[in-house]
Automatic annotation (TrEMBL):
It holds the Pfam family AAA_33. InterPro entries: P-loop_NTPase (IPR027417). The lineage of its organism: Bacteria, Bacillati, Bacillota, Bacilli, Bacillales. It comes from the Bacteria. This is Cell division protein ZipA.
Length: 161
């Protein structure tokens, strides 16, 4: 039987370093890297102005991405997804992707506190001025309200960093 690829995905508050870590891991694991930010900005340029816009377009993207990831995994290639896994509902979507095709997965939980994340967000605003409108303390406080730390009871293989 053909060896399936492994799906790697992340959980961590805004600013925890998920995108940076996903790029490093993709190289390390010789994996295909899929970034939600890149997909959204390519498919819906200048259409995401609010958090509600993000939720709407992210939901439209998911069925297509799910099928693509399953196809890549099924030919034995690893996939690193820079998509948020910060709520139980989001993590269930990743789990469904692998369970439907019986592939392996790894959730990397970047467990940083609020102060560490806010410091990194401030640094990112300086390095990427185009993100300054979204990378604010107000946005961090808003999205952190929805954050749910992962639990083994969700059926996940979790590595905490």
């Amino acid at each position: 039987m053909k060896q399936l690829g492994t799906l790697y995905f992340f959980c961590g508050k805004m600013g925890a370093g998920k995108s940076t870590k996903s790029k490093q891991l993709a190289i390390e694991k010789q994996a295909v890297l899929l970034s939600e930010d890149e997909w959204l900005s390519s498919l819906y340029p200048n259409q995401i102005a609010t958090f509600e816009d993000y939720l709407k377009f992210s939901a439209q993207l998911k069925p297509m991405v799910k099928k693509l990831v399953q196809n890549i995994l099924s030919v034995g290639t690893n996939v690193v997804m820079d998509f948020p896994g910060n709520t139980q509902k989001q993590r269930k979507w990743f789990l469904d992707i692998v369970l439907e095709i019986d592939a392996n997965h790894q959730l990397i939980y970047l467990n940083l506190n609020n102060e560490q994340c806010l410091r990194q967000i401030a640094q990112r605003r300086n390095e990427q001025p185009e993100r300054a409108a979204f990378d604010t303390e107000e946005t961090f406080i808003y999205v952190t309200k929805f954050f749910e730390a992962p639990k083994a009871s969700e059926g996940l293989n979790i590595i905490e960093e």
